[in-house]
């Protein structure tokens, strides 16, 4: 669900270039390519094992319509300067950058699976380094989109700093009266607009049911985008 909500934050008409940082097996980036038939998507992942899964997905007959618009780049998101460019992430190249960074704190119970543990483990300065890279590879006026835990909101705002403005933050709640479990954040490179805290997104309308609300179900299944309110 995190990947699909992240993908829904890309709302564009016409040709658009999208980089999915820390793409894993590519769920979010592939969802963008499937919903927007003019989007060209670059999946950026440092784990060759995860990129193999993405490559296998692209070779499925069902994905023939998107495979030519998706590029795989094996690179560490935290690379800087010439090393980043040499890895295939040039400056000012993308209209949108999306990310679902690792979110588990050191105190959280860790999975015994080494690959999953690496994908989920948060490190100090993570948002600063990832958002710095997003700012470097994005065109002026481009959009940053990410999904994270609510506890990371201060770090995200701080990392955006002067690089990004016009932050729009949407808290995601399981049901009315419960605490938020995720935040959706979008921002515009170079914008001077102020932060906007948007109305909450409720996953379930019925307190007795696990069925998603109609709008969230549309987001989860690529039938709708979660558009920004402003620039």
Automatic annotation (TrEMBL):
Domain of life according to the entry: Bacteria
Protein name: Methyltransferase
Keyword vocabulary terms for this entry: Methyltransferase, S-adenosyl-L-methionine, Transferase
Start and end residues of each Methyltransferase small domain: 5-150
SUPFAM superfamilies, per database record: S-adenosyl-L-methionine-dependent methyltransferases
A single GO molecular function term of this UniProt record: S-adenosylmethionine-dependent methyltransferase activity
Any GO BP annotation: methylation
Pfam annotation, one family: MTS
Taxonomy of the source species: Bacteria, Pseudomonadati, Pseudomonadota, Alphaproteobacteria, Hyphomicrobiales
Species of the source: Rhizobium terricola
